[in-house]
Amino acid sequence: MNPSLTLGLLLLPAVAMAEPLHLERELNDLRVDVEVSELETDTQPGIESGLVQVLITNHERFKVACQLHPGETEASPGLDSTPITIIAPEGRRALTMSGEYGDSTLNALLTCIRDE
């Protein structure tokens, strides 16, 4: 079998399972679970447009405040930081981010802090 074909077949599952969002996390030692899912995507040549959701579960005994910020490489003016979201103790909240980007993966930063 052709070596480049074999390599391509081995990489296929990794490409198919790529995350819709590359998420950096600044969780400040808080006990929170973070799940990322893709809600919808519209693909055009060179442009990826879609909506991703970050589901946060707070396992602390106090409220936490979380916010999504678009990555530095995201050049579209449609990508703005989400509003600060307060999550109650043992609560769950979803943050969403949408926009157009020239890569198949959206980059973002999730920050969470204790809410005083």
What would you note in describing this structure?
With 116 residues, this protein is mainly β. It has a single domain, classed as Immunoglobulin-like (Sandwich), CATH 2.60.40. It has one helix and seven strands; from the N terminus they run H-E-E-E-E-E-E-E. The chain has one helix at residues 3-16; strands spanning 21-26, 32-44, 47-58, 64-70, 85-87, 92-101, 106-114. Strands 1-7-4-5 form a four-stranded mixed beta sheet, with no helix packed on it. A three-stranded antiparallel beta sheet has the order 2-3-6, with no helix packed on it. A hairpin with a 2-residue loop joins strand 2 (32-44) and strand 3 (47-58). 16% of the residues are buried. The model is unreliable at 11-17 (pLDDT under 50). Residues 1-18 form the signal peptide. This is 3-phosphoglycerate kinase. It comes from Stutzerimonas zhaodongensis. Keywords: Signal.
Features of the shown structure:
single chain; 116 residues; mainly beta; Immunoglobulin-like; four-stranded mixed beta sheet; three-stranded antiparallel beta sheet; 1 helix; 12% helix; signal; 3-phosphoglycerate kinase
Write the layout of secondary structure elements.
Layout: H1 3-16, E1 21-26, E2 32-44, E3 47-58, E4 64-70, E5 85-87, E6 92-101, E7 106-114
Parallel strand pairs: 1-7
Antiparallel strand pairs: 2-3, 3-6, 4-5, 4-7
Q: What is the highest CATH level, the class? A: Mainly Beta
* Helical percentage: 10-25%
The CATH topology label is Immunoglobulin-like
- The separation of the N and C termini measures 62 Å
Q: H/E order of the elements?
A: HEEEEEEE
What oligomeric assembly is this protein in?
single chain
- Work out the count of structural domains: 1
